Hints:
heterodimer; A: 154 residues; mainly alpha; Helicase, Ruva Protein, domain 3; 6 helices; elongated; B: 174 residues; alpha/beta; Glutaredoxin; five-stranded mixed sheet; two-stranded antiparallel sheet; 5 helices
Amino acid sequence: MRPWMIMLALWLPLTAMADEARPVAADPVLEQRMIKLSEDLRCLVCQNESLAGSRADLAQDLRQEIREQMSAGKSDAQVVDYLTQRYGDFVLYKPPVKPLTWLLWFGPFVLLIGAAGSLYAYIKRRGNRLAEVSLSKEEKRRVEALLGNNGNES
Amino acid sequence: MKRFLIPLGIFIVLVGFLAVGLKLDPREVPSPLIGKPAPDFNLALLSDPARQLSPADLRGKVWLFNVWASWCAACREEHPLLLDLARQGGVPIYGMDYKDQPSDAQAVLNRYGNPYVETVVDLDGRAGINYGVYGVPETYVIDRGGIIRYKHIGPVTPDVLNKKILPLVKELQK
């Protein structure tokens, strides 16, 4: 067999594989946009999975819905609106900032500031206490006696 | 003694929060559709595919909208309760066969009985998406003006029926 034929034989299966890996949607740019958006959306059937990663039936339907709305020219915000109108803010992995979610958004910072404040107060109090402690003459004498050689290294 | 009281207090509050959190069902997502008009659809009837039904046809009466499917095991659980309710005749129940083969759905109704005045067929689940359906069965209470007043996710239990759905229906029918 000639070398070029072997090369061809080796190359042929590769083209077959490349064929299989064709993108699902006709428009790969739109598909990317859809996946990027649905990564931030919750699948309601399996609640700890994103809409992008879930294999649930409903997730597939919703991905299809997003795909169609995007190809109809809707913006990401409009698609998200469409979903929150039906499923509530629960579909968003990143909940919107509103009075109901203030505690969620700002609570950690309040805790952090509170903790930093009390840590500061504690250190300051402890510092004051430590500063007061210094050796009396009697204590200094005992230290020297214990260390021997007037405190010099032997 | 006093230095133990503050951590103990914090701990008790934390346990309180966790205990309440443990009782909440994460599957019960509050529906944003409550208080909003029931989304429109125009779907073929299971009993007669040539005819269609829309929520607009039911204006003027209080009705229950029950989303079910033949592949849904939990739907079989609430089925006897719905049959009972239909027999009492207090409130009409309309069904939606969600993402299902009509022939399978008809077989279920033939075998277990039919509590529905009519069942519409949502083959591709589009109408279901508009109703925010994510787990069948789901049951909606819709008032005379076509406004969704209540949504129950999962099989209807006697408790939910007697304490929530029926009192609400009575209130709305006044």
